Amino acid sequence: MSEKNIPCEVIEDLLPNYIDGLTGDVTNQMIEEHLKTCEACQKKYHHMKGDLPVLQDEEKEIDYLKKVKRDWRKSLLAGLAVICLIAAIPLIRVFVVGKEMKTADSYTVSVEDDHTVHATVYAGEGYALRAESVSEEDGAVRIAVKTVPAKLFGKERITVDYKANQTIQTVEIGDEIAWQDGYEISHLANELYKNKNLYVGDMPANQRLANTLGISYMLGSYTNELETEKKPYGWIMHIDELKGEELSESACRKAAGMLIVCVDNLDHVRFTYGNQSYTFTQSDYEDLYDDTYHSLKDYAASVKDIEILLQKLWYK
Fold first, then answer.
1. How confident is the model over 111-124, as pLDDT tens digits?
2. Nearest-5° angle of CA 254, CA 260, CA 261?
3. Which of 278, 257, 274, 253 is nearest to 266 (CA)?
4. Considering all CA atoms of the chain, what is the largest pairwise distance in Å, rounded to the nearest integer?
5. 146 to each of 87, 94, 154, 158, how far by Cα in Å?
6. What would the 3-class secondary structure string for the chain be?
7. Residue ranges per domain, the chain?
8. How far apart are the first and last CA of the chain?
9. At what angle do helices 25-37 and 39-49 cross, to 10 degrees?
10. pLDDT tens, 50-86?
């Protein structure tokens, strides 16, 4: 193949090395012979050496390539920003927006002149309070509080002062009633009211009530026995490992009274430990009856009534 018949593409590939002096004598001679007769390759050669200015079309091509590169970088950065934003959304929800609190560990609530609520909600261990909103409907004021997992992003307590348009009957914090008809309602009263049981034969429901009261922590571990073959229905707790030196009659009376109230058809509760045995029926709580409460079961009517019983019986 003569130098004239060498394809221009081959010469173009060799030109950078030729200009840098990296090609051999034979290759140099072949390139030089080709350049003598090929005007197009001569121009490319001089452009590469810098002897001629870059053609306008080539400038446009270079500018276009630069623009494409810039656009690609911008698209890449934009894509990375979107990915980071999407990844940050759950963290923003948790640490900045917060999660609505279902139950408050600690709070104080009072109502002034039947229309003004004064409430303070305290953060518990491991979380802080972020924000609150207050709504009102049919005499019920609801305080919604959001929590965040770090003190840096929230407060240790939130205070609410709200004047209602109607006479206030209840104040709710999260999913619980915190105040009702003149009484501040405890978390324990809410849990007992929520776990009320219609039938003593439902042992899982019974156990939820016993766990809510903390009977095993108060008296000791126990084994359950039910008397449900005929009325009156009973529940026996055989204490296996006693807390303390002896079975406390006072503690048994408190626990039995709360269970009789919260289990609709339960008539009596008995606690046994060795030779000790204490049995309680509704008649053992006549000291708690008055013009409003004619029987122990009357205290199950509302969460406020259970709170009143807690104050009369459980907290004493």
1. 999 999 999 999 88
2. 95
3. 257
4. 126
5. 22, 10, 9, 10
6. CCHHHCCHHHHHHHHHHHHCCCCCHHHHHHHHHHHHHCHHHHHHHHHHHCCCCCCHHHHHHHHHHHHHHHHHHHHHHHHHHHHHHHHHHHHHHHHHHCEECCCCCEEEEEEECCCEEEEEEECCCCCEEEEEEEEEECCEEEEEEEEECCHHHCECEEEEEEECCCCCCEEEECCEEEEECCEECCHHHHHHHHCCECCCCCHHHHHHHHHHHCHHHHCEEEEEEEECCCCCCEEEEEEEEECCCCCCHHHHHHHHHHHHHHECCCCEEEEEECCEEEEEEHHHHHHHCCCCCCCHHHHHCCHHHHHHHHHHHHCC
7. 3-53, 99-185, 190-314
8. 115
9. 120
10. 765 544 555 555 555 555 556 677 777 777 777 777 7
Whose structure tokens read 């039947």?
A: 114
The pair of structure tokens assigned to 312 is: 């009369």
- Residue tagged 């051999």 (tokens): 24
